[in-house]
From TrEMBL:
GO terms for cellular component: cilium. The gene is Cfap47_4. This is CFA47 protein. Transmembrane segments: none annotated. One of its GO terms (biological process) is sperm axoneme assembly. The lineage of its organism: Eukaryota, Metazoa, Chordata, Craniata, Vertebrata.
Amino acid sequence: FLLDESDTVGLPIKFIPPDTGSYHCQILLKSPCDVRVYEIECVVSKDQVDAELEFLTPAYQSVIQNIPISNTSSVDWKLEAKLEGEGFYGPPVINVGVGETALYPLTFNPAAEN
C-alpha cells in the first residue's frame, strides 16, 4: 500500500553541535503494538571560509608558506588541493590524521617578465 501525507507524522529534532565532527544518536519510538529504532549520524563541518595570504619576497625569488591544517574531527582527512594562478605550486593531496595538524607547503615561484 502507499502512504500519503495523512499517514505521516513530523518529528522535529533540534541539534546544536558544539564543534565539527561526527555525531551519532538513536531515536526509540514505542507504541502498544510497535517499536522502532532510528539510527542517525550527523556530520558537521565548518562553513567554507575564504582566506587570504600575503607573500612578501624579493623580486623573482621563490617563497614557501607552510599553511597549518588542523583536523579536530573524529575521522582522518584526505584533502585535495586545487591551485589557481601562475607561479603557485604545492602537493595535490595532503593527509591529516585525527587530532593532528599538518603543514601544507604552498610555494610561489614568480616568473621573470619578458
